[in-house]
User: Fold Rhomboid family intramembrane serine protease from Flammeovirga aprica JL-4.
Amino acid sequence: MTINKGAKITLLLIAIAWLLKSIEWSLGVDLFHFGIYPRNRLGIFGIFFHPFIHGGFKHLFSNTVSFAILCFSLYFFIPKIASRVLRQLTLYTGIMVWLFARPSFHIGASGVIYGIASFLFFIGIFQKNPGSLIISLCIAVLNHGMLVGLVPNEEGISWESHLSGFIVGCVMAYYYRHVETEFSRKQTLEVEDDFSYEGYRNLENKEFRYNYKEKD
Assistant:
């Protein structure tokens, strides 16, 4: 059920972005002004709309692939709070961009993508269990090239969005470090089903109680 929910939400968000880009292309309009414009009152609305607005089909396709993988991973590995994390990552990343970024329109889902990647990576580090560390290792291997995007390296790229998402993801991973992940849940079940730990297993139940009496 959770996997289906994650897939549906991921596809829905991607579909909205592609629909808007199709409208732009078919009508010959540009929706970049719905992005975030830092420290401008109207630019505040971009905090909610910017992940769905992209500069071109190449930009949109690139973000679609990354977002699909990471968003689905978020719902698969941390199903209990995935939707909450996704909303908070979008909101807080957008706020940071509005407060600190260059005076320009910032659009695209890159900040959210960096936020999810950062969150999944650091929650594995903070939880310190083998299962969660596997998440961190996979994220690091698959997205190591993203580190380049955290600093100014190419004109027209909102590195501020990338850096904001990365920072927000790290902070939120620490905040939610005690949440149950898919790997930590499986690890707990394996321990509970292990009859050999500590050399014994408690056999007491309602029908049987062990009563110890000292010798006189």
Remarks:
- The chain has a mean pLDDT of 85.
- Residues 2-182 form a domain with the Rhomboid-like fold fold (CATH 1.20.1540.10).
- The two ends are 61 Å apart (CA to CA).
